[in-house]
Amino acid sequence: MSSNYKSLGIRPVINANATLTKLGGSLMPAEVRQAMQDGAQSFVDMHELQQKVGARL
Known about the structure:
mainly alpha, 57 residues
């Protein structure tokens, strides 16, 4: 559990409901977290990013 959560006194829960928004949505794979961290290191034109990602999808 994150030290940020611990410092707020938030207790962990066992998610027996699959993906549930009120429980934080879902856990992210390491690859997704790494891609988010990599993307947060630069400023980019969001319109261009959306176009390029849309074309790739």
